[in-house]
Every structure is written in structure tokens, then in C-alpha cells.
Amino acid sequence: MRAQSIISAGLASLALAACAPIQYEARYGPPPQRVGPSAATLPGVYADGPPQIMWQAQRSQCVPFARALSGVQIFGDAHTWWAQAAGRYPRSGLPAPGAVLVLEGYNTPYRGHVAVVTAVVSGRELRVDQANWLNSQEVTVRVPVRDVSPNNDWSQIRMWHIPSNAWGARIYRAQGFIHPLPLTLASS
Question: Is 101 helix (H, G, I), strand (E, B) or coil?
Fold first, then answer.
């Protein structure tokens, strides 16, 4: 009887451990490093590997994935993140590694997306890691994002489409970047 309860307790702890949050590096390895400017002109050629769909990764949505990877402690739908960050986190139109890129919905104001910047390649291109971009709860890493706004202000972007190995046809409106240092710490 005692052996059975020890085995049951062991199996229960293994099941609970599988549900525990796993740190990004433990799951995917170290985050991608900054890539030199020469890579910006050669889509699909990166010092840290090509864009990749991590099907074997634990399934996720963009919000919990971005929160865990960036440390930005905002909850709720992606379309609410920009407003929620006001007064809590620095917001800007300039990308930086670790910042959260916030996209507006493409066909309704109640849709949005968040992704984490992992590398700034040039003034018009960066890399993000994100979840559920292809709507299959997948994690995609090292995904190129290009600023296509007329004023070079990151207000309009185009995302690399991994399955077709080409730039996506749709242009998305970006609200900007939420930087992970809370304003209370940034002002200290």
C-alpha cells in the first residue's frame, strides 16, 4: 500500500511539473543574437538560424507567451496591451531587444497581437519570437518583421510568412513597442 501511494505521489508530481511554466531558454535555447546589417538584405539568412515554427513546443497564445518572454506583466487580450501599458511601462515607436511589439487588429478593433523583439537587424527590420501567429497555437522564432511605413516610424509592418518562405502580403498597423522596465523602476 505504501509503495502504491509513493508511486501515485510521484506520478502526480510529474503531471504537475509538466504544467509548470518553463523558462524560454530551457524550452528553446538562448534567445537569438543581434544580426549584422548584411543579413537584412538576404531574407532567410541569419547568423542564429532561419525563422522556424516550433511545433514541438508547448502550445501557447501570444499574450502568455509574450508576458513570459518579456517580463511585461500585462494581462488581458492583446488589443488592450497598448492602453494598459500607459503609465506602467515605457512605450515608444523604437524597437529594442526584449520589447513587446503591439499590433492592432486587421479586421476588427477587438483583435490584436503581441510579439517579443529578439533582435534589431536594421532601422527597418527586426526579429520577433511569438505564439499563435498562424492560428495553430504554435511558437515561431526569429521571424523577420519589416517596417513598411512611409515615415519609417514602425506604424505599419509586414511579417515574414514562414510556410511560404516569403514576406506576407498583408500590412499590419503597429501601435508601437512596450519596453519591459516598469516606469516605477525606470524613474528611480
Answer: strand
Distance of CA 74 to the CA centre of its chain: 14
**How far apart are the C-alpha atoms of 170 and 172, rounded to whole Å?**
6
C-alpha angle 88-90-91 in degrees, rounded to nearest 5:
110
71 within a domain of the structure (yes/no): yes
DSSP 113: E
Q: Is residue 13 part of a domain?
A: no
Residues near 91 by beta carbon (within 8 Å), at least 6 away in sequence: 82, 85, 176, 177, 178, 179
Q: Which residues contact 10 (CB under 8 A, 6 or more apart)?
A: none
- For the stretch 137-150, pLDDT in tens is 999 999 999 999 99
Per residue in 154-163, pLDDT tens? 999 999 999 9
Q: How much is the CA Rg of the chain, to the nearest whole Å?
A: 18
Distances (CA, A) of 70 to 118, 171, 182: 10, 24, 12
Residue 15 lies in a domain: no
**Which CATH number do you get for residue 43?**
3.90.1720.10
Residue 87: domain span: 31-186
User: C-alpha cell of 68?
Assistant: 513570459
